Amino acid sequence: MLDLLTALTEAFTSFLFGKVETTRLPVRTSTGQAQAVYLPTAAPGLGDSGVIIGREVYSGKGYIYDPFQLYGQQLPAPHWLVLGESGNGKSALEKTYVLRQLRFRDRQVVVLDAQGEDGVGEWNLIAQQLGITPIRLDPMTAREGGIRLNPLDPSITTTGQLALLRTIIEVAMGRGLDERSGFALKVAHSYVNETILDRQPVLTDIVEQLRHPEAESAETMNVDIDDVRAWGLDVALVLDRLVDGDLRGMFDGPTSAGIDLDAPLIIFDLSHIDRNSIAMPILMAIVGVWLEHTWIRPDRKKRIFLVEEAWHIINSPFVAQLFQRLLKFGRRLGLSFVAVVHHLSDVVDGAAAREAAAILKMASTRTVYAQKADEARATGRVLGLPRWAVEIIPTLTPGIAVWDVNGNVQVVKHLVTEAERPLVYTDRAMTEDGEDGTARELAAAAAREAGPADGPRGSSEPTVA
């Protein structure tokens, strides 16, 4: 009776709703085929407005990033830190990111190009393509009509000039100015600005005043003129290096005419400066403050300040303090600071650990390319990366990086278009494995399609299908 009732029920159900699902025998298959049935869970992206970077490795979704679009909602600050050993794609990412940003009319970019070969910077090819002449700072040609930047340029406020002079001296001396030396510098700077009105004051004027201070300068503080001269002697000797030493010509005259601060891309070519000398942080300080007072303006433009070899900034307490102020100031005026560093240990264990921590804290976006396992663990601790991300960093292939955008952590494969490739990978780099490893990047370009074999599928923890 029960079987008859079941049969009638199934017949009536089939009449109303169609044939019921039949029982199927189990099928033996592979995980490659079954993944179409058991779909993985993918983390949400960053939106669909901004610059295309590439695609998220584990979901295949397009990865779009723009600090100006995300600022205030998903990002507390628009600043960005790029980490990784040479030859893993940092250079390609920087260049394509800038080229893609410049497609927006309200974007402007300054690049401090600290690398190069054959007498030109690494960004020279892009500059030629865009019809831009790099601002090449070279002490060898400065006296023969080369580019000059004046730390006493009238476009820089007197407060900014004095802060810049102090930073130059402190970087060169490796210590802070004492009160007496600081007073001598302040008096000399004030006197020069008050008395030289028919031209731009220059560093030579400051050095001369430090060596031969005016009597009234001493009288204002009721001290002896010989004391003021003695207090300023060390300061004069340091500044003399910019006037008559190995850095002469670049900063001891009026700012060169023809520097177009309205160009969409401004490149400071520092490739002729020894990257391991004290000259590099001094240059970084001068360029940074000069840009702060002449380039960043409340005109609603979105500006990007990209610095290669940025450890010269973060590893110097005095320069780091200047850039800290620049970063805080720039957020109100639409500035995104991009710092490119090989190893985080270069800065967090250096002389400016406290200042470095403050700058790293401002960088809400962190992109980490392949590093050795011990370096990856140290980076993960400092940046607070999830464990799965730290574990895969040593296994990443060139062009693939871990992106941490204010806690949204994903593995992203950077894609280079055919139009961009000639600008990113030069012929010289193909034949000579340069320091930035672009030859290795190009050789591995085809292999990048595969990506890592295993890893996370979400933004914070791996999801297993």
TrEMBL record:
Low complexity composition-biased segments: 440-458
Pfam family, one: AAA_10
Disordered: region residues: 431-465
GO terms, molecular function: ATP binding
Coiled-coil boundaries: none
Keyword terms of this UniProt record: ATP-binding, Nucleotide-binding
Protein name per UniProt: ATP-binding protein
Gene source species: Streptomyces gamaensis
